[in-house]
Amino acid sequence: MRIKILLSFLLAIISTVTFAQQRAITGSVQDDAGIPLPGATVIVQDTNRGVTTDFDGNFSIEASTGEVLVVSFVGYENTNVTVGDADSYSISLDLGNELEEVVVTSLGIKREAKALGYSIQTVDSDDIVNSGSNSALDALVGKAAGIQVTRSAGSAGGGSRILIRGVTSMIGNNQPLIVIDGIITNNETINAQGSTAGTATSNRLMDLNNDDIETINILKGAAATALYGTAGAPGVIVIQTKKGSEGDMKVAYTHSTGVDWMSTTFNLQNDFAQGRNRSRSDRTPYWRSPGTGESSSYGPRITDLEFATDRNHPEAPSASNFDGDGNFIWDKNGFLVTKGTGNGTPANNYQDNYRGFFRDAIQSLNNLSISGGTEKATYFFSTSYLTNEGIVPNEEYGRKTFRLAGTLKANDKLSFQTTFNFTRSDYTRIQQGSNTSGLLLGLYRTPISFDNANGFSPGDAVDNPSSYIFANGGQRNYRGGGGYDNPYWIVNNALGNETTNRIFGSFKADYTMNNWFNASLIIGADFTSDIRKQNFERGSRTRSTGASQLNQYTTYLYDAIINITGGDEIAENLNFNYLFSGNAFSYQGTSLSTLGTDLAFQGFVNLANASNISGGEGLFQNTQMGLVGQVELDYNSAFYLTLSARQDYDSRLGVPGTQFKSADYSFLYPAASLSFLLSELLPQSDVLSFAKIRASWAQVGGPPPFAYLTSSGYGVTSVGDGWGDSINFPIQGVTGFEIDSILGNSELKSELTEEIEFGIDFRFLNNRIGLDVAYYQRKMTDAILNASLPASTGYNNVWLNSGRMTGKGIEATLNLAIAQSENFTWNSQINFTSSENIVEELAPGLDKLFLAGFSSAGSYLIAGNQYGAVVGGTYLRTGSGGPNDDGLNIPEGDVVINDNASSNEYGFQAVDPVQRAIGNPNPDFVLGWNNNMKIGPVNVGFLLDWREGGDMLNGVAWALSFFGRSQLTADTRTEAPTPIVGVKSDGSPNDIPVVRDQYYYQSSVGGFGSVWEQFTEDGGWVRLREVSLGYDIPMSKIGIDFIDSGNISIVGRNLWYSTEYNGVDPETSLTGVGNGQGVDYFNMPSTRSVMFKLNLNL
Amino acid sequence: MKKIENFIKIIFCVVLFSACESFLADDINRDPNNPSVVTLNAVLPSIQIRHMDVYGGQTSRVNSMFAQQTEGVARQWSSFNDYSGLQPVRFNTVWDIYYEDILVEVNSMIADAQEDGYNHYAGIGQIQKAAALLDMTSWWGDIPYSTAALGIEEINPTFDAQASIYTEIFNLLGSATSLLNGSDGGFAVGGDDVIYGGNTSSWIKAANAIKARAHMHLGDYASALSAAKSSFTSRADNMSYTFGTTQQAGWWRFNDGRTGDIEFHPTLRALMTGLNDTDRLAVWDQTFITSHPYMKPNYEQAYVSYREMQFIIAECLSRTNGSSTEMEAAYLKGIEASFDETGLGNSEYSSYVSQNAVNPGGASLDLEDHILTQKYIAMFVQPEVFNDLRRNDFPNLTPTSGSQLPVRWNYSGDEALFNPNVPVGTTLFTPKNSWDN
User: Do B401 and A902 touch (CB under 8 A)?
Assistant: First the structure.
């Protein structure tokens, strides 16, 4: 029965398609003066069929009756011609001085682009779909000015952070609002396992299938987003999805298969084995067995060692290193001894094993959409299925999406639109970052003399437990079972599973009464359920007794908007438009966590096997309302003035237990913008084809970043001091509460950003060159922050409206139609972004505030510095503590050398006890250069992505110097003693010769020491972000009639980059998508990918 | 069509105007996850376990490292061992715990209990507070107290002289004893008291034990002797908390997460080997891993112990030329309690103390060679070893780096950053505590 239905469904589809008979349509395209236009584009609407006109403006294309030809040429208005009975058409284009570009702005309102007094940039679906990324945010890199996108790690299913015009809030949310079809949607990133450890996390916009996107508009400044009130302060990304269009049913199918592989790894040394120097006085390196727990690779050269199996050998390790049969348990070949004293087999160098550990990961995407419609109604159905392996074995990401969208014109006045989406995402995640089960800790720190795979090939070791586990259940790793998990253990025994089910949809009704009254109602809901389970098999280094950690999150967003609009000509050449809008939004998040520890036996990581189970619950909710009024005056289509105001109400300002007064919850945001079309007043010119000058001013506020900040309470106590796992109440059957260390503040009000923006939009040579530049300045006051208190007050922080920040930036987009001939078109776009946000003031007496990272080094707010400064320990300078030392930045002066002869650090740099700003993680600018070329049926595209500057804290280099695994330590440990540049305490140049060997790198100026400044590096790059090569298959020529058009392409992503950064790809962030950036600590390496893609339209 | 028009009008009115209050207010911003008020029995266990954990955790690690009972050998702990890595920021956490997680809670608990006449909660609170203050002034000397823990009422608390902190400790202990002798006011302390289960006489002994320790610091041996004698009469009286097998003690959790960072110190090993202290050495001197036989998950973490009291009695008698019989008895009870605490039996203890080097007989007991040496050993990884080291300048240790032994802890780096009243120029090596001569 099912098969019958399926078959008839298929038949129906096929018959629909084959009934549309195509024939050759010819024609010519000319301008309004009758001059032929060569290189004009003629495409059949909603298909991939397209041609360009020849030198004489003639074209020929396959089309059928009823299809619409869309004819376009840069600088002219698009013209649509419906194919009738005739086979030949003469099409004339009007000069497009008055570009009737319509963009979707705030609250789903469409406005003419030329009327806008602020900056909005549109990215089309093709640019997203052809990016080679499955994440819409990731796909935006380099495609718009004013944005900065950073992927948090190279993990499959890892999220991205996007900033529009830098940051707008000190510690609150800085990620833009995501609006899909007029509705606020969820782009959360939920971190269940602490900010510096755990697994990669997603951002929820990844649930949207890129193929369903029609356009993305980026609303950048305060004026552009003022109608969204507080929620829009960080900028708004407005996404319109496909909803089908009038015409025959169209079926589009896309398949892509690709491979991802590791881009680069850290520069590890390849020469020295596990071990250490005998002592400070006898610096002879000697090999130490994994059984000793030795962490370092300061042993002998691997070439000076050979294998031995004779347990009576004087260098043989202790008895616990051998099994009952007398075999060395850590290496099947035996233990290591000085060359010439063993069995003659040279020691193995297992260095290449860590590269082999990563795999070539396969990803594939299948996408099917069906769309069409009549004059009255349109529909769009789609489904997609993505599978994406990670480069780490067993790491996986899978996503299934289902979408229904449709429109209905009930009559001339009333129309409806609805969308419905379901997305299921499944992830298998790998531990990363700062935790003993973090994959790269074990992988990079393993000495070259230890084989994590225990003789297996890397591929086989994954599936052979004997590589990582002994028969007695103990873990086999290079530190005798301590230290870090064996990477093969991690990918089998410390996996995290995540399942997200998400439903979101919207309903929209539009009612058009007359010019003066139009109403629309938009309602949307978005529900996400996110269930996670983190496994730690008994024997994992993070949880030696084993653990099963379950987390369940739900997020529910509800958004309702009513817009009333109208307007008309009120005097000659003077138009008036108004908008009145009401908006209600509510957010509810819940969390439920259960932790089962102390598993009774191995092989069953499950709560049922746990001897100790604890749990927790959380509920977070807030509501917002807004009333908006806006008027727009248009004089002569040359001057546009827009004035708006939004009154916002936010529950997060409410103080529990007090009488409701709406004034306590509300604040007013005004905005004004002006657009002046200079070109309207100038004589028509081919040179300057369009010129617009714009200016805007707006105030936007930000609510308290979280709910419940206006009061304080007690919380369940978690007991610990940061050097081991904490234990949580209830402890042994007793509950325990303590006073929250953050003080609430009932006086909290919204923070305020005032922004002024100027811009130009000039287009030259019949619009072949377009330049859009925006400059803005902003001032933020009353910034809400968790101001630090000295702990002696009994509290750590108090919520205050005390911060002040200023920002400015320049954005530019240059569009170039480099070539526009019949057989060759080349469109090029350069997007430039430079922004700077200075923290002017935090709170009285406070000039430093922690954002993210470690206590010894991390991302901070520092008064007078750019946002998110990297802070860490520094060398002592002669100017330290002097009159020019502000206590925040590195003072001038020479590095002071420790010349206390009895100190273990004699001859090393002395340490400044004050932590200081040692880097600025914000890039000087980012630039994207995007190119699309069409050479006959061949499409070529590439995108160069240049990020200049932006410091990173290289925590990998820091740690690996301690362990003697970085190449730097191999280079310097054998050098002749030389004095380090600096001065002694009497000011004379340093003349104390030292070798930078184990004792140097394991001191307070080495790895795990307090000084970080030498590990701060420039994280800028130039990168070939995207490159693609496509070919339009001439379907009719090869005799395939039932397919309208087809395209095959190869897309490469991140294939090349160049950076000064020493380590993995600097596009990474330990703390994920949060505000603290610029810290690299054993994150997953980034990937390169190549994808083969087939696109068919029926 | 009319219907739809009306519907839109209705929605418009409802959403925008009338529903405003219930949509926004209605205590939507009241935190459902954190209560604004809790009862005393929910706070007391938090104060107690927090204190035991910080005392047996980071405090024990740093102090036993300073006293060369343990040695930092890897990662951060190797630079801590050289003193150079122990920058002020490394003391943030412990400082924060004392002020934010103990002092502010205990103050609020005492105030609430006194207001309601719950004398036993108030008395226990005062003893917990005295213990916390004694720790803090021992490691840091002058500390914020009289203007501390007041929230934003005083955002830059001033530092009180160490002498006044000791005065306050004795006041608190005296007040606690009389409160505990009073009625419970209708709210009896029970199982929420994870140390003594609400037993007031045990608490009074503990108050005396803390008093004895504080008098020792100040060199008031007569008062110390009398307080110690009024304190514990057996190991069962210890003011201690036994952690659980699945909610483990501090050293176990450290050894679990940071295996290999800290190991047994050669100095203590040499000393004990010289005294043929092989049985205790066999238990203690093992790799610091989760199967370490002494640093067990369910370790009994004592704050003050019977063995410490016995050594105080012995030391006071030695210093005041008191009864040598009594001195020898206390000395041996201290050693015996240590063997007992280490899980060893009477035979190991007897053979150990039968050695002349350990017990040459009452009159021949030397303060340093015997009493202070045995106390140093018996107090293995107890934070008090650092106080004894400074008080007695014994044992004679060689600095691990440089030429000075630490004489104090650094103030919290964050405190110094946010509170201008933090004394400048303090390091691990200066200034000394007021009682450290």
Answer: yes
